[in-house]
Amino acid sequence: MGHMIEEIAKQRGHEIVSIIDIDNQDDFDSPAFASADVAIEFTNPTAAYNNYLRAFKHGVKVVSGSTGWMNEHKEDVMALTKDGAHTLFWASNFSIGVAIFSAVNKYLAKIMNGFPQYDVRMEETHHIHKLDAPSGTAITLAEELIDNLDRKNKWEKGLQIAPDGTASGSNEVEADSLAIESIRRDEVPGIHSIIYDSEADQITITHDAHSRRGFALGAVLAAEYTYNHEGLLTTSDLFKF
């Protein structure tokens, strides 16, 4: 992701003033980093929040696609970004296609709210290196669906298929719960499906990423947007659907 983001940013006329990874953490306090308009952060749940703090310390805005930190640090981040004191653009997925898919998901859920004969579940498939399950994108889609579908109040981990094919868990959940099935296979960039099933028929919508390039482009577009905006931002600010 880092290499793709760098490539696309340069193609769009931007300058990369600092690149930080696990081996040069002291560069957070360098003049080069402090000169940045926006930092793009794609790491992991254990590092993300501290990276935000180190960027905010130097007045650098942040665009982040890291997931898994919100349970512990959501309230802190909301306080830090209140009234534009600091700026974080966060999204579980930066793909333009996923933003469109999200809008379709919410609209379809509103329609299906009137058709209780359809039960609904989700399925997400990712590469074998992905550590979290369900994916952050699946959780975001699930929460959007729950907000618009009265008969679902929460989501749960459903069937889990490990990289070696081992299965655990089940999609058999309580009626008011949404099962999210997670599959880890090969080098799949990301597939998310929402399945409405009844005795009569089945309706499925799917987003299938061909590569990670779409995520990288979306992150650069988010950085361009963040340059002129403040506070806690997300894809609903960038894409007005």
Characterization of the model:
The chain is an alpha/beta fold and 241 residues long. Helix content is 36%, strand content 22%. The chain contains eight helices and ten strands. It is globular, with a radius of gyration of 19 Å. The mean pLDDT is 95.
Keywords:
about 240 residues, alpha/beta, six-stranded mixed β-sheet, 8 helices, globular
The helix content is: 25-40%
Query: How much strand content do the residues show?
Result: 15-25%
Mean pLDDT: 95
Derived from helix and strand composition plus strand pairing, the structural class reads: alpha/beta
Strand order of the largest sheet: 6-5-7-4-8-9
What's the number of helices? 8
Largest sheet: 6 strands, mixed
Distance between the termini: 26 Å
Strand-and-helix sequence, N→C? Answer: HHEHEHEHEHEEEEEHEH
Q: What sort of overall outline do the alpha carbons produce when their principal axes are compared? A: globular
Radius of gyration: 19 Å
Write the layout of secondary structure elements.
Blueprint: H1 2-11, H2 31-34, E1 38-41, H3 45-57, E2 61-64, H4 70-81, E3 88-90, H5 96-112, E4 119-126, H6 136-148, E5 154-161, E6 167-168, E7 177-184, E8 191-197, E9 202-208, H7 213-226, E10 232-233, H8 235-238
Parallel strand pairs: 1-2, 2-3, 3-10, 4-7, 5-7
Antiparallel strand pairs: 4-8, 5-6, 8-9
Helix pairs in contact: 1-7, 5-6
